[in-house]
Amino acid sequence: MSGMGVSPNGRDISLLRNEDVGCxxxxxxxxxxxxxxxxxxxxxxxxxxxxxxxPEGHDLDTARALSLVDEMIAAGVxxxxxxxxxxxxxxxxxxxxxRLRSAGLLVKLASNLTMIDPDTARGLxxxxxxxxxxxxxxxxxxxxxxxRGHGAYARLVAAVAMLSSLQTVQLNPVCxxxxxxxARLDEIVEKALTxxxxxxxxxxxxxxxxPRVLAPREFVMAERLDTHAREAALTRIAExxxxxxxxxxxxxxxxxxxxxxxxxxxxxxxxxTGRVNPCTLYxxxxxxxxxxxxxxxxxxxxxxxxxxxxxxxxxxxxxxW
Length: 321
Ligand SMILES: C[S@@+](CC[C@H](N)C(=O)[O-])C[C@H]1O[C@@H](n2cnc3c(N)ncnc32)[C@H](O)[C@@H]1O
Ligand code: SF4
What we know:
The protein is α/β, with parallel strands linked by helices. The chain has a single domain (20-303), classed as Aldolase class I (TIM Barrel, Alpha-Beta Barrel). The chain is 30% helix and 16% strand. The protein contains 9 helices and 11 strands. The chain starts with 19 loop residues before the first strand and ends in an 18-residue tail after the last helix.
């Protein structure tokens, strides 16, 4: 076991805490503005559990994506999570992340890591520090591919081998827990450790009650953990934190603890078509769009709208949890 605060490959993990959070909008009483940017609605996979919604319009083109980056920098954004769909499908991804990082922003890339080639890996690593939050649904192919489709795990393993040799990349796998992988907690943490990951995050499987979501409701209903299993998972995670202090083990929405929501205040969501919303689930009508406004103007407009009131209650998720 290596020392507290240092991962097996020598990376400093002291800034990563073991924490239990409600969702990415309730996570951090953060210093500075953060953006969750769904950079594309396209995906190369069709995961059985995915809360992705059917595409509504076109992704922002490169020119507007890059000018939006400049506007986010000017607006004082500190951290940005680039997600999708699958961000690696965007040919301009390297250019976008390089521009963000050259301005000193912390960038997290959420990816399934099934489509990365050596040139892209090098390109992504060259512009400085990059956090890669990749999906890991099981410690071996059968479990992972049950969710993601045949061959996804083999491609992920190849991508991790490529990325883990790059000093500027920090690997932070994210595992959505359901009945299919609940018994594999220990192995998933051990797998993350052998890959030199700085953290591993276990998330509850969300049931988002919307006809726009692509995953079949019956699948999510059948695979979701019940209260007893979630408590058992949290107990085992507490033990794993003691056993493996060299990796941060985080959870999302497994604990019932209330955390104030920062949606629309210190965290905002940008959808693939350029609409700015308080969070992934809260869609403003009429929309606020970066096709008509600059990012700063969109933030001002957002501040004038009424939404989550900063409580621990989320009227979108709590209906179904
Ligand atoms: C929507 S994906 C986008 C990034 C990338 N395509 C990937 O799979 O990592 C972001 C994360 O959301 C997770 N996710 C998808 N559907 C979910 C659900 N119903 N409940 C909880 N997490 C979910 C995925 O497993 C993934 O870790
Ligand atoms: S979880 Fe990620 S890879 Fe899977 S379908 Fe959803 S967006 Fe695509």
